[in-house]
Amino acid sequence: MSRRRRLAAISTASLVAIAGLGAGSAQAAPAPGKDQSVLRVLRKMTLEEKVAQLFVLQVYGTSADTKDPAAVAANQKLYGVDNAAQLIDKYHPGGIIYYSVDPPNLASPQQVAHLSNGIQQAAMRQRVPIPMTIVTDQEQGSVVTRVPAPFTQFPGSQALGAGRKPRDAYTTSKITGQELRAIGINTDYAPDSDVNVNPANPVIGVRSVGSDPTLVSKFVAAEVDGYRASGVIPTAKHFPGHGDTDTDSHTGVPIIKHTKEQWEKLDLPPFKAAIAHGVDSIMTAHIIVPALDPSGDPATLSKPILTGILRDKLHFKGVIATDALAMQGVRDKYGDDRVPVLAIKAGADELEKPPTDAKGNGLYDLQFHAVVNAVKNGELTESRIDQSVYRLLELKKTHGLFANPYVDESKVASRVGTAAHLAAEQRVTDRTTTLVKNGALPLKKDGRKVLVTGWGVSTTQTLADDIHKRGPATTVYQTGASPSQATIDQAVAKAKDNDAVVVTTNRAWDVSTESGHNGPGQANLVKALVATGKPVIVAAVRDAYDIAYFTEAKTYLATYGYTPASLESLTKVLFGEISPQGKLPVTIPAAGDPKTTLYPFGTGLTFRK
Predict the structure, then answer these.
(1) Is 406 exposed, middle or buried (0-12, 13-18, 19+ CB in 10 A)?
(2) For residues 249 and 568, what is the distance between their CA atoms, to the nearest angstrom?
(3) Which residues are designated catalytic?
(4) Residue 357: Cβ-neighbour burial (10 angstroms; 0-12, 13-18, 19+)
(5) pLDDT value at residue 331
(6) For the Glycoside hydrolase family 3 N-terminal domain, which residue ranges apply (predicted)?
(7) CA dihedral 264, 266, 269, 271 (to 10 degrees)
């Protein structure tokens, strides 16, 4: 049988399943207000199949039947299987999440489409054929982006916030969704809906639109609209709001100290906007918010937050997804066997990425059986499981997955990274570069010599290439995130042999000397370069806050990312080809003094015409 006929046959099986045909379809009286075709599928499922449907699992490999030794070894360690197809045969999970970690899932658009079809084929040959939720975190920008070029690399949320055009957010999310759907990814864990008011936030930062809840709300709504228009399921995250913390929930337990009134004014509006625009899914945060739940439980495990606020007060009817259960923020208080049970009791529907033990062995089997046993011993009712499974199945049906979960692999090249999409990428990005302080721009396109130094091997080289195309001779000296004094001295020596210096910084504000932090090296580098007397242009290619730690710099720009399009836009501004249009979407406080404003929200210089 040809591949196309096999796909058609499996797709027919999915239609049979959703129609409730075959043995076991005779059921009790219809439940009012429910989709009867979804209920017929639900009623065919065993308890174990229902519980498995709640989980979204990571799997290694670039094909569903991979035999790559590294991928097989990694999958064996997690699940005791070789590949995604065997994982689905063994456990029947509801979803798979793609990552770019090694060994990756994401190598090329064509390959991902083939992987997605293989996963859906495995899902549709099960006893109860149910299409798979296939997920990734494609927030765009330079921080949380899984799918590589030639996939269109749009600027991230904070860059869009700087551009101040919600229509651009709609365009980027719609095109992102179209390209994801073309390669079989039907769910995006985006948009980030946090309001980033803490300059020391180690985990959100530029993933957030900005520090103003009104601005964030407008852009979150536009992104939700764009994803929904593309047919991809959006997920607003991280409820109830992860924007005011200096602790990373991947490695610790953040505590948000907002009062209830502060939370309602600051953190809540973007989620209300997402719900008003029909967002299908909301992801929980592994954060403690005592004003909303004094128990000390993280929001992911908090019934007052997930059920009391999100369900009952905000009337959210969609899927509540947890952030990854492998993150420390949800593992500190309870054992890994208790976490999924407590998340379901709190109101969660979808359980993402179970953890591993200290030796890297997967704990999915432990968590899966913990939920099953909680039903069998009466801690959870099967009707509670049914509620979540119904929401997940209904969402899959609403987005057409039961009708056809497959993608046309022959059309991927014509739908991903197209000329029109790439033109939109550059056009949108050109509106985001923010000129905060100016003493040297625009540069002249002449034969001067320019040193390009600072953070990022590919970043400094790409930027130097872009500058060289405009005329200047360039020298590249990459100094890293934590340059030593010897490295700084080398950069200073090179600066003296050049006419101007362009230096990139990445989280230079992270001046702590504790392990895991950047330290003061980047700030010291900029200060030393400025002291040479050469014209120095500083470009923060991640957070805009860096300038607080080297106020001596006379020219400072923020790009909020370091994609090739971001660096091209930066270069255009450097040479006056375009006038900078970006406005700060955050307030930049003075170093060590968050109550003193150095550059206010909305700052953004331009060139006089």
Answers:
(1) buried
(2) 33
(3) 250, 323
(4) exposed
(5) 93
(6) 46-394
(7) -90
